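Hi everyone,

Forwarding the result from last night's run.
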Amino acid sequence: MRAPRSRTTAAALLSAAVAAPLLFAAAAPAGAQDAPRPAKHHAGQGEKAQKLAKKLVKKSTGKSAYRHLEKFQEIADANGGNRAAGTKGHKASTKYVYDRLKKAGYKVSYQDFTFYESKTLREGAAVLSPEARKLNAVAFDFSKSTPEGGVQAAVAAARVDETPGCEADDYTSDTFTGKIALVKRGACTFAEKEAAATKAGAIGLVLYNHSGDQPVKGNLEVPENAHIPAVGISKAEGEKLAEQVAKGEVKLSVDVATKAIPHKTRNVIAETRGGRADRVVGLGAHLDSVPEGPGINDNGSGSAGLIEVAEKLAKETKGGKKLTNKVRFAWWSAEELGLLGSDHYVKTLTAQQKKNIKLYLNFDMIGSPNGAELVYDGDNSDNTGSGPGPKGSAQIEGLINGFLDKKKVPHWGTDFDGRSDYGAFIANGIPAGGTFTGAEGLKTEEQAAKAGGKAGQPYDPNYHGAGDTLKNIDRKIFATNIDVIAHAVGTYAHDLRSLKG
């Protein structure tokens, strides 16, 4: 699971370069329609769904899935300690997944794409007048470079309100032309602030933090978002500049240079050979780790869970030939760099291909050592953060909650906060759901009382670190979430009626 958008430290760009047919995007067969079926047919599908779900839950086990985690650890150990996108460790991980699914009888495809890493060559800023002083400035990832020696200009401060520097009216007409914009962090993305400042006529951007004592590390996410040189400074430095600007003219120098370095990576997509192509049940997990560690929980756990259930599904349904609906599994790359693999995939779909995907289930970090069973809040009943998911998301949440209730597993809602690969699907109106067992967030007293573990401590103390190894997995919660995947796949592979509940 990647860091929140406002704290992203990795920087990357996605470009369309598809190496094989997109299985998620397979066209519907001639005559395939979502026409109502007779009641008898519906009853039959419901019975099939219950039987298959029960079989998959029984056959899919945490013990069996753990061998895939062992393989991911082995791959990381042999490749510099990680499986990050663009590395040999990630490539070996994709081959492992591809080979397992091919052997199980799926139609399997690689989807290649290019992303870019931002390398900082120069960064700096200084006050020239009314009194000279150096600022502790950090270049935005993918910032436009200045000439050698930087650019010098007067400062104009954007309005500070609930959405500082996010909208055109935060910049007084004409007063920013040819000046360096001073903007406070918050409310919108770094790229949106940079674009707004550019449109106002600014020739540079200095963004100051809204909290803490460190300079803000901005990220434009893709090179084409770079229009003007941009750096980040601390809250204290920014507030001092703003006070000076309010009293009179302040001149700054900004000197920055970055370089975009291309890397190639790939998604792995596998689909059942049977089932209606216009009724796709989609599931995904990101396969890449951060460079700092092997990523066994984040997200070897979700990746292993999908492999386990996919293999058992193939075995129970003769490669999926007996299914009512087509099931497609995806292992995304470059999630840790900004959800790039899933974003790239969804961008390649036509409107009809998106419509064919009836739901998407996401599993990212399902074995946290101090974890809680968190189910994506499809109906926004918790009323925190983002709103509800697209129509059908509430029903997905209900299916998962109902299953966990029957197993007497305590569970809680978790917000669609944009930090994992459901984002692109939700943005395109596709119902979404899934589970998550927690990252750097702290376990609550209630969660500890009902599910065990340590309150006030991170769900995963090794999140995004070298300690995310096999020893970092809670095998009990890992097994529980594999049951969740199995139940959902078995149900939706035959019966989608509950989505309209």
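The chain is about 30% helix and 20% strand.

Cheers,
N.
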